[in-house]
């Protein structure tokens, strides 16, 4: 079951990626986060939704002023579970011949004949442009690289010979224990901190709660 937080209108005709936040992960992490002194309700709760975070903590009888925020939200470098995952959808695929380029400026040209997928999620939703040609996404449990420059609402992914169905879920980052790309890949590629990334994604993407 899922519930929906108040969110901005979806971009790209209602098919914008969704920043899912896990209530189970937040509850699990809360006990591990005790003893910190961060303002865990700052910046719309670090992109996770301040009202939602406050309500979950209150339901557990916890003081939001005495917690470690990176642990609470499961950011890289902690022992906690990631609370946020960013997921889009495959809009379709097309063949890309050797030497052909994709996206603005053709920063990527295919080294061989391949297939690329257009997926929802671009810099308007926090998929920053530095991620192009640098990180992978997960589709049906397999990793595929983002190629070319990230556009405003979409990215291009090299899926090789893999058959990708229209509407297939695309995981940009999530829980590495579930085989998802780690947020750490984004920090390495962009130079941003994990807290900066989740705050930006939470503000820009549609946000929903998964129980």
Keywords for this entry:
alanine racemase activity; 6 helices; Ala_racemase_C; pyridoxal phosphate binding; 211 residues; Lyase, Ornithine Decarboxylase, Chain A, domain 1; two-stranded antiparallel sheet; alpha+beta; 6-stranded antiparallel barrel; pyridoxal phosphate; single chain
Question: What do you see in this structure?
Answer:
With 211 residues, this protein is an alpha+beta fold. It folds into 2 domains: 22-73, no CATH class; 84-209, Lyase, Ornithine Decarboxylase, Chain A, domain 1 (Beta Barrel), CATH 2.40.37.10. It is 23% helix and 29% strand. The protein contains 6 helices and 12 strands. The strands form 2 sheets. Strands 4-7-10-9-8-11 form a 6-stranded antiparallel β-barrel. It has a two-stranded antiparallel ribbon with strand order 5-6. A hairpin with a 5-residue loop joins strand 5 (101-102) and strand 6 (108-109). The protein is elongated. Residues 1-14 have low confidence and may be disordered.
């Amino acid at each position: 079951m899922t519930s929906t937080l108040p969110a901005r209108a979806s971009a790209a005709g209602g098919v914008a990626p969704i920043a899912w936040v896990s209530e189970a992960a937040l509850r699990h992490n809360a006990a591990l986060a005790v003893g910190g002194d961060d303002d865990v309700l700052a910046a719309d709760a670090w992109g996770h939704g301040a009202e939602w975070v406050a309500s979950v903590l209150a339901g557990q009888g916890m003081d939001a002023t005495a917690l470690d925020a990176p642990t609470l939200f499961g950011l890289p470098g902690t022992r906690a579970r990631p609370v946020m995952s960013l997921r889009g959808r495959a809009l379709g695929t097309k063949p890309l011949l050797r030497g052909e380029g994709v996206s603005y400026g053709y920063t990527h040209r295919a080294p061989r004949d391949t297939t690329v997928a257009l997926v929802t999620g671009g810099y308007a939703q926090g998929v920053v442009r530095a991620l192009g040609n640098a990180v992978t996404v997960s589709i049906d449990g397999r990793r595929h690289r983002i190629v070319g420059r990230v556009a405003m609402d979409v990215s291009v992914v090299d899926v090789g010979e893999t058959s990708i169905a229209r509407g297939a879920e695309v995981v940009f980052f999530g829980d590495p224990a579930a085989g998802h790309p780690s947020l750490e890949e984004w920090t390495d590629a962009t130079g941003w901190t994990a807290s900066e990334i989740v705050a930006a994604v939470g503000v820009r993407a549609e946000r929903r709660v998964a129980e």
